[in-house]
Each structure stands twice: as structure tokens, then as C-alpha cells.
Write a structure and sequence with these properties.
Helix content: 25-40%
Largest sheet: 5 strands, mixed
Oligomer: single chain
Structural class: alpha+beta
Strand order of the largest sheet: 1-5-4-3-2
Number of helices: 4
């Protein structure tokens, strides 16, 4: 499954107020912060096979306009990105993302 092609067909975001509140309460991530990640480059996307029993879930790593590095879990419903959770990347995730950024620059 090509996550990028799935995102290209999306036309916006859909927010569940419970998930939005949870991301804010636990991690101080706003809806706007999470949405900004999808427009950052490079964007590291992957399927979340482990949590995709009911519906396809995906993971994305990127950063906000203020260079806050976030890890976002989402699904797509009716061509809308529905964020399930958003938080700061942990040290290991940040290292993976930084390597991805470096490798992406080398390929260009």
C-alpha cells in the first residue's frame, strides 16, 4: 500500500474531539501542530500494521512550522485524514527521522 498516493487523494482533516483533547492534554499538541506535519518535507510515512485490525492505520514523522518534531498516527476516512494521536518524537524516532532527512538530501 502506497501511503503517499493515499494522502494525495485526501482533501482535508477530520478531528475526533476525544483524540484531539487527548493529544493536547497528554502531549500539548494542537490540531494545527499535527496538521502542519503533513506539509513538512521530508515526510516519513509508514503503515501501522500492528494497529490496523479494524481499519488501515498509518504513521508519519515530520515537523511543525516551529521545528517541533512530531510523530502522528492517523487513518483515512472518506478522503479525510483523521488523526488518532500526535506527540513529540522520542529519541529513537528522532534519530530515524534525522537519518531519513540526511539520506533524502543525498538522493536529490
Amino acid at each position: 500500500m502506497d501511503v503517499r498516493s493515499i494522502l494525495e487523494n485526501c482533501r482535508g482533516f477530520q478531528w475526533d474531539k476525544g483524540n484531539s483533547f487527548k493529544s493536547w492534554l497528554k502531549h500539548r499538541v494542537t490540531e494545527g501542530d499535527a496538521e502542519q506535519v503533513f506539509f513538512s518535507e521530508p515526510l516519513l510515512l509508514a503503515t501501522d500494521e500492528r494497529h490496523s485490525q479494524q481499519e488501515a492505520r498509518f504513521r508519519v514523522m515530520g515537523y511543525t512550522d516551529e521545528n517541533r518534531y512530531l510523530y502522528v498516527v492517523f487513518t483515512v476516512r472518506d478522503h479525510l485524514i483523521r488523526v488518532i494521536s500526535a506527540r513529540d518524537m522520542n529519541r529513537k524516532e528522532r534519530a530515524v527521522y534525522e537519518k531519513f532527512k540526511t539520506d533524502t538530501k543525498i538522493q536529490k
